[in-house]
Amino acid sequence: MVKQTIQIFCRIKPTKSKTSVYEINPVEDGAHLSVMIPKEATDGYINNKKEDFRFRFRQIFDQTAKQEDVFALVARPVIDNVISGYNGTIFAYGQTGSGKTFTITGGPERFSDRGIIPRSLSYIFQQFGQHADQSHTVHVSYLEIYNENGYDLLDPKHEAAKLEDLPKVLLMEDEDQNMHLKNLSVHAAQNEEEALNLLFLGDTNRMIAETPMNQASTRSHCIFTVHVTSKEIGSATVRKAKLHLVDLAGSERVAKTNVNGLLLTEAKYINLSLHYLEQVIVALSEKHRSHIPYRNSMMTSVLRDSLGGNCMTTMIATCSVDKRNIEETISTCRFSQRVALIKNDARLNEELDPRLLINQLRAENLQLRNQITIQSGSEQFTELLTAELIAKLTEQVKNYLADTDNEATLNVGADMRKIDQCYRAFKKLHLELQEQVKTASATPNKNSQPIYITHDISPYDSKEVKELKEIIKLRDNEISILVNMLKKEKKTEYRPFSESTTPPTDSSFSASDRAGNQ
Ligand code: ADP
Ligand code: MG
């Protein structure tokens, strides 16, 4: 278990106006942001005698900081942990226009403006490519929460003209009081391109929903989630982790939004939703609080693990240093100082997959049976292989080679003639490939060796065979116990949302995932 407080970073948005309202000073293990309130503002919004404020951050990115640097210092360590099996969350908090979306998703103009999400996807697949001894899966979901309603941004139908057209995601509670998301689709991504296409689809849906009358993106929370599983080849132990990348609604106060009618209702909702986030954070940062009000809003329910639970969490406070925004900047920094007090307990999410174990034991048994057949010489294969069988074996070899699963096996039983035939097929395919590569110099492969081969079969060894049979018996018992366990588990398993896309790593978040803050 890794106990760690939420790491807080600050990013200052570039401004054209000359400002001398802030200062950054490095300190041990971090940096201080000093904010000076301009004299003329003190009689206005800020009814406070104090004119200088100082806030401590893990790191402060000044106006000239590049997206690349923000990714390297903020996101990369979190993702390294996600790949190792620890949940991770990065969320951006700040007033509208302070650079949350720019930081999390990026700017559309230049490739170098890519934000944390596309860079993370790229990095994840790059890291996977370096671990040939492991197999991995990546699944993605994208949720927008607006006025306490959840919407699935990865609706494949592309027909949404407004947010309300997207499938509604509901928060449901099961009888064990675990919260589940109903109707949030989870999509597999085989490679970086597929993952980026999903992000693009989600962002397109997000933009369509945003009209001048309905500035949903500044008033809603967006949570892009990457589910990662990793497994050593040949092992039945799977590591699963979730990475939430969160673009929160603008944190400006409702009194300042100066709107009425529908927009006022929206502003009130956001304010309410961020207010509940604040309540959760205040409760978590106070010692000896037994009740944490996660259930008050959809966002705090979804991010429950990220706040005081089984997760490594990082926050980026985005700040504007224009004079008129100083009040909000101070409020953003104050909020982050509270967040910095929250302790999370990240656990390694590692589990034994009984299905994998069964498959492994079955494969082992088959191998042992084949070994017995060969060693005991109990079956003599002497007749010629038929042309039909040879074609079938060649097909099997081709399928085996085409299978991208590193753990795929080719099993033709204990018949040495078949095994030899497979080798022959391998050689033929290899030569064909070579020929394709150097078409000019290749000599045609006239491989016409006889397909009938005799071979020595080891003498019958009753002791060894007996031992092998014993092992098989034991393995068979283990398999049937596991199968029974699985059957029982299936019967008792609570599946309240069978109609929604089944997530690979559960899109629900169960109490057992958490560190006990209730
Ligand atoms: P928010 O999501 O907090 O409302 P945005 O990310 O949309 O704010 O930023 C507002 C505008 O400022 C956008 O046009 C964005 O491209 C620009 N912007 C924000 N941060 C930066 C930055 N660090 N460098 C360049 N442009 C930025
Ligand atoms: Mg935004």
Automatic annotation (TrEMBL):
Keyword ATP-binding: yes
Keywords on record: ATP-binding, Cytoplasm, Cytoskeleton, Microtubule, Motor protein, Nucleotide-binding
Binding-site list for ATP: 94-101
UniProt signal peptide: none
Compositionally biased residues, Polar residues: 498-518
Localization per Swiss-Prot or TrEMBL: Cytoplasm, Cytoskeleton
GO MF, any single term: ATP binding
Origin superkingdom: Eukaryota
Pfam families per the UniProt record, alphabetical: Kinesin (PF00225)
Renumbered residue ranges of the record's region Disordered: 491-518
Family: Belongs to the TRAFAC class myosin-kinesin ATPase superfamily. Kinesin family.
PANTHER family recorded: CENTROMERE PROTEIN E, KINESIN MOTOR DOMAIN-CONTAINING PROTEIN
This protein's name: Kinesin-like protein
Organism: Adineta steineri
